[in-house]
Amino acid sequence: MSAYFRANIAAMAGYMPGEQPQENGIIKLNTNENPYGPSPKVYAALRKALTPSLRLYPEPQSDTLRLAAAKVYGVKPSNILAGNGSDELLSILLRCFVGPRDRVAYPFPTYSLYDTLIAIQDGVAAPVAYSADFPCRCPWPSKTPR
Questions:
Q1: Main-chain phi, psi angles of 6, to 5 degrees
Q2: DSSP assignment string, 97-136
Q3: How many CA atoms, within 13 angstroms, populate the side-chain half-sphere of residue 99?
Q4: What is residue 146's predicted lDDT score, i.e. its pLDDT?
Q5: What is the DSSP letter of 145?
Q6: Within 10 A of 77 (CB to CB), how many other CB atoms are there?
Q7: Residue 79 contacts residue 70 (beta carbons within 8 Å)
Q8: Minimum mean pLDDT among 22-36, 44-58, 113-127: which range?
Q9: Distance from CA of residue 140 to its chain's centroid?
Q10: Is the pTM of this model over 0.70?
């Protein structure tokens, strides 16, 4: 199968998400889990949204969301990109703006998906370490990889 892939894709290791403990009672902040659960307002909004329209396919370009966000931020709806979570948005952005041998700078340590998305585009990862005075209580070293 690798004969059909681009050389940079065939040479890649697959994306490995961070540690995902499965024990009960662990709140995984690295996957944006909320230790408190949804607010009562969220439950009320969900109950209100539980209508027959949930069976319909959503707006393909998220026009209603983009219009509302544009009003909040004072920009045009065409300046808002909506997606199915940050992974999809990062993928779209890198596919649009990164080509072979393009350097992509990003802070390190950070989200490990950046390296995978850059490699898919055959770009060059350029991680930048946080400065020594950055207020981080990270359990990992702040030196850049490579």
A1: -60, 150
A2: H--TT-EEEEEES--THHHHHHHHTT-EEEEEEPPTTS--
A3: 0
A4: 45
A5: P
A6: 17
A7: yes
A8: 22-36
A9: 21
A10: no
At 75 the three-state DSSP class reads coil
- 57 DSSP 8-state letter: P
Could you give the CA distance from residue 88 to residue 67 in angstroms, rounded to a whole number? 20
Structure tokens at 44: 């009320």
| Cα-based distances in Å from 124 to 10, 13, 24, 68, 92 | 16, 15, 39, 36, 17
Residue 75 identity:
V
Q: Which residues contact 19 (CB under 8 A, 6 or more apart)?
A: 30
Respond yes or no on whether the N-terminal peptide bond of residue 109 is cis (omega within 30° of 0).
Answer: yes
d(CA 35, CA 115): 29
